[in-house]
Amino acid sequence: MPLPDPTPTHAQAVQTGNAILPTVLIFGSLVLGFFQPAALLVWPFALGWLALVLYRRRLQFTSQHDALAHSNRELIASTAHARLLEMILNASDIPMIVVEGKAILLANRAAEKIFGAERSLTNIQLDELFTHQGVLALAYRALDGESGRSRFQMPINGQNHDFDVACDPLADSQGSVFTFRDITELANAVALKADFASNASHELRTPIASIRGAIETIESAKDQNEPINERMITIIARNASRLEMLVNDLLDLSKLESPESPPNRETIGVPDLVGEVIEHLSAMCSRRSVTIKSILDPGLESISTDPGLIELIVRNLVENAAKFTKEGSVVEISFAPRSVTPDPESMVTRSSANPTGLRLSVKDRGIGIPLAEQQRVFERFYRVNDAQVSSSERGTGLGLAIVKHACRRLGGTISVNSVYGQGTEMIVDLPWCVGEQTDHADG
Fold it and tell me: Edge-to-edge, what's the strand order for the sheet holding 356-363?
């Protein structure tokens, strides 16, 4: 509602003039009354006239005052409503941009943070901000009253992000509203799923083809060549074991990626855990003359964590190190209390009885991992230096991916420290595993 115009109108000027006339008559009758007493008879009538004029002026002033107060209340309410809408838009984590023609009229805080590097986007042309033709085409379609959707990729902070954008026209205007949804994680998940299916199919196809070939060789020999049959049976057994390993690792990985079952905390003896892993790998270590050396903190007798997950972590890390370390060398595994910041999205709960975290380190003296490949070693089926491992000891390529997911399930992290040509150290940090009695150790 428009505010009342403070400039006097013609009617207001006339009413002001009407107040002057009775005032002049009053003072004129008083002055003339000194000379002609009959003139005083005009004074009461002029006074009544003035009173009537002032009363009407008061009614008019009251009406204008009420109208102005009402306008102010509506203005305050409208301002508060606009501010509330602005707060709602800025509170949304979905980037939104309002455009008139190709000029940006309004952008919420999420849009300015993602697309404008915290700067204001108001009055910027749309084609200055986006170069993707699909986005610009949506703006032209909105001018014709059509809604539309598109997808585009845009670099944000040095990394490519995938966006799903929707554009809807505003009624009775040349404007339109753009909403953007970051689907980078979804796109990566779809790509990862496709890669996983492709890699898993390849890994399964190789041993299956070997088994089929061995069976066909046995069938063609028909017990006429015993040495060949024995060799083929060995191939079948080895590839069957490889298939079993692959299936078991896929099942472990599937369980770890499922959020349905939280970790089950139990008290585990650290020497017993290490002893079981060393015994499990004794045959392979004997073949390669590898020694596993455990370094335990003097006060660390037990930890509180999920026994299945910690066993997966330790066994996979030590087995991986034993495969890739130099023959006749030593693999070191160490446990020590350490202050650990937990993953905020972790399912593991804080333990008042075990306030200290745990650092697990497994160090080998192998060829090491090139710097460019160090973060890729945790990808499914990714292998480094696979040529130096015999075919009988070659893994599935899922071990470190399993370790990474197991660490996340326990609220921890895994990192790699490797110098190419000297060796590799895998470091696992897990929160809330150690009681207060060992809190004096390295933090």
Answer: 291-296, 330-338, 356-363, 423-434, 413-419
